[in-house]
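User: Second chain of the day. Same drill as before.
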Amino acid sequence: MVFENGVVFERIASLGLQSGMEFERLEVERPFRDAGGRGVLLLRGPLVNENLPDFQNAIRRENVPTIILDLTGVPYIDSAGLGSLVSTYVSRHKSGQRTVLTGVNARIIHLLEITRMAQLFAIFPSLADALDALSNPGRA
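Assistant: Same format as last time:
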């Protein structure tokens, strides 16, 4: 457990080195245990091929109707990261579950738009906006 600004975070995954090569880490944290049937994962760092296994493992552990991926701390994703987001959407959608993105920067929004993947996800400016909209079904 990690405390940050009075909030308890459960660190799920953190990568830094692999096969002797250094790359930017991806940290995946769960800021709280339950958000009314919604799992929230905060990602910090790039979502790229080198760090996908921990991202995918964190996703598999979330057995909730709606998962919210807060990408506020993600500066960029590569094609493998995009593929993993789409795979997350497809597998959860087949199970009747929902995948929501928040805090997506302009660079990632552009990638989602040019690949026509933005339409798959409900996307909100912030985690607070997503939680508010999902708590009021008429708004989501």
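The helical segments are 52-61, 79-94, 106-114, 127-135.

User: Great, on to the next one.
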